[in-house]
Every structure is written in structure tokens, then in C-alpha cells.
Amino acid sequence: MRNALRSLLAFALVVASLPSPAAAADQVSIAVLDFDTQGAPAGDAAILSEYVRQALVARGEFTVVDRKNMSKAFQEQALQQTGCTSSECAVKLGKVLNVQKMIVGTYGIMEGGFRVMTAQMVDVATHQIERSAKIKGFEVSNADEAAESLVRDLITGSTSSGSFSSSGSSESSSSPGDMTSGMLEGQMDGKANGGGAGWFFAGCCLNLIGVAIAYSVDPSPPPGRVMGKSSDYAVAYTSAYGDAAKKAQGKSALIGCVVGSLVFVIAYVVYIVLVVAAFSSAVESATTTTTY
Q1: Distance CA 24, CA 61 (A)
Q2: Residue ranges of the domains in the chain?
Q3: pLDDT digits (tens, 9 = 90+) for 184-205
Q4: Fewer CB within 10 A of the terminal residue: the chain, N end or C end?
């Protein structure tokens, strides 16, 4: 009986430690095609495209198809991703990869070594270009930071087309305090960061108390996300982040509560069965002894 209870306890701990399925279910599938080139080496464009993929993965909001799997899928369909810059081409390849969004772009070097990187996010279902972004004036040494800025502008819907300074920041021509951008980015970050295994485990162990705590705790946004922004942007971002994060952590705790309750019920039923079996065995043994 002790071994059975230990096994049930171990099972409950394993289930409780699993990551919340809520975050994974909300992720958007996306693929980044190797950027087309304009007066730039194709190898550099491939590296920049990989930087963009890494930046998307780092945000934790997307399921990103890696380059190896893309190449394999295209080879099976006798397709090529190079030279694909139009939305029609992106939609065609997106359907092959079975993703929701596609990112296509170009990387060019102008006279004097001035670098420019542009990108478009295409919705595969609607065939529409949802957002576009441009980063220019970056150097090879900070190309990864330029890719991160490009991804941020694509996701937030910013129309940043300013120069990329040597200190590693993009100087946007649009107002950084735009309330719409702050709200959208706050919602996405809150949804991505709000849930997780911690709140799932709280709901699993504390049951309804854990759910109540999850819905009562006010999450704080990352301070770095509003640095250098206007007060309007900061207010919109903080409010949207708090609402989205609280919903996400409450959802994770609720799922944990359900899973924890099921584990408890199963463990209790198994315990009762084992007790009844032990009691029946004892009675049967006693009856046999009396007979003899």
C-alpha cells in the first residue's frame, strides 16, 4: 500500500511540474524566409534572417519554424525560398509550412556601405500584409540588435524607419508614446509572461485558494519595456500588461486546480480500494484461521 501511495504522490508531483498548456496554445506559428539581397552578400542576408528567427523565439509568443525544417519542406515540394518577397509568394510557402504568419524581407547595402533591412509580416489566411518595418544605418557588429528592433517594430505595428545608432537603438520617426502601440505590446507581453508553471503549480497544490491568489495579485511589467518611452505609452503598456498577465496567470492556476483535484480524487479512490482490499484480505485470513 505504501508503494502505491508513493507512486501516486510522484505522479502528482510530475503532473504539477508540467508547464501550463495555456501559453503554448496561444502561440502563433510563424516562419521567416531568408531575406532577399540588394547589393549585399547572400550569406549575410541568411545570417540576418537567422537573427530575426532568434529574436522571435526570444519573445516567447511564437512557434518559429527553424531554417532546417523549412529547407526540408521546400525540397520535398521542389520549391525555393530565395527571391520570395511578395505577399503571394509568402502565402504559397506559408501554406506548405502550415503556419499562420510569414515574414519576408530584403537586406541591402547602399553606396558608402549604408545598410538597410526591411521586412513584412504576411497573414497566410487573409493574404494580407499586416505590418512592415525598416531598420537602416546599422553595422555588422550590432546586426543582431538591429534584427531585434526590426522584430519589435513588426510586432508592435510601429512605423519606425529611422536610423539605427551605434549604441544599439533604433531612432523611430514615429512617436514612441503611441498609446495603441503600448496597448498592443502590453497585451502580447502580458499574455506571454503572465501564465506559466508557477501559477499552474499554485492552483494544483492550493486548489481554489491558488486560483484566488492568481486573480488577486497584480503583475508588474518589466521596467525595461517602458524605458525611453513617453508617459502615454508607459500608461497604456502598464495597464494592458496588467490585465493580460492577470488573466493568463488566473487561467494557468485554474487549469492547475482542475488537474490537482483530479489527481486527488484518483489518489483517494485508489486509497479506498487498497483499504477495502486489505480489509477483505484480513477478514478472509481470519475466517480461514477460525475454520481450522
Answers
A1: 9
A2: 1-20+180-292, 28-157
A3: 777 788 888 887 788 888 888 8
A4: C
